[in-house]
From TrEMBL:
Domain Cation-transporting P-type ATPase C-terminal: 80-296
Its membrane topology: Multi-pass membrane protein
A GO molecular-function annotation: ATP binding
Keyword Ribonucleoprotein assigned: no
Species of the source: Trieres chinensis (Marine centric diatom)
Keywords associated with the record: ATP-binding, Cell membrane, Magnesium, Membrane, Nucleotide-binding, Translocase, Transmembrane, Transmembrane helix
A Pfam family hit: Cation_ATPase_C
Name of this protein: Cation-transporting P-type ATPase C-terminal domain-containing protein
Record bears the keyword Glycosyltransferase: no
GO cellular component: plasma membrane
GO biological process: intracellular potassium ion homeostasis; intracellular sodium ion homeostasis; potassium ion import across plasma membrane; proton transmembrane transport; sodium ion export across plasma membrane
Regions crossing the membrane: 56-79, 130-150, 236-259
Amino acid sequence: TDAPALQQAAIGIAMGVTGTEVSKEAADMILADDNFSTIVSAVEEGRCIYANMQAFICFLISCNIGEIFAILIATVAGFPEPLTAMHLLWVNLVTDGPPATALGFNPPAPDLMTQRPRPSDEPIMTRWLLTRYCLTGLYVGLATVGVFVGHYMSLGVSLSDLASWSKCGELWQPPSAAVNAAGGALMCEDLFQGAGRALPQTLSLTALVCMEMFKALSAVSVDSSLFQVGPQKNPWLLLGVALPLLLHVAVVYSPALGVPGLGEAFGMVPLSYEDWCTVLKWSAPILVVDEVLKLVGRVVNRKR
């Protein structure tokens, strides 16, 4: 007699020990130990798995959005490419994979079981999450291009000169006053070829890698603050962030390690202490951006 009710229920649950075979066939879930408290544990585990899937997917999507914005901004502005195809492969295949995989081991959020049940038809990437990651991706794109442009501006190259870099040989004969202000003898090939271009591209790539590692640490919880659910609660995530950073540093400083061809193959050159300060100046604010957007999301959810 329970079979019709079990079929009509959103989730029909039957007893595994004392339940009839008919009720077990009609049920969606069977309690193997006939203990209803098991349902609570199952719901908690299911919510944790869902949250980790969401963190994994959202992290990868937000990283890709940032890369798209970086290329788009540079292309529209007419600037040289801040990232090469090899750089994008490096980011997508080497530096994104380990932290994304480690996000699957995130612990349950403290308020996981007090959250309201989400609609069964709600997509894993909600409209708010898509908006949020587009905004963080926009900052990633701006910062990636910003550190690239900032390097050239520190040499005395104006934005207009940088936007006309492809016509450098035609417009800068003799070299423009802006370029002369940087040292007097910088020509097109010194700025946009070889090491002259590899350094700002290495700055952009390193800033992008750092921002994505910061985002991975923040993604330990999709909604909760990083200060509430710290990354130290997921040691696999710490390892997943440390490993790509060490690999990246090894390639950047490959000449010092006796493998100069490695850095050349990836189009990277060693960075100075001042360069690292510049990278952190542009990349660290992504944590603030993400925390503010998380706060906005929590406020909006509480008002619903």
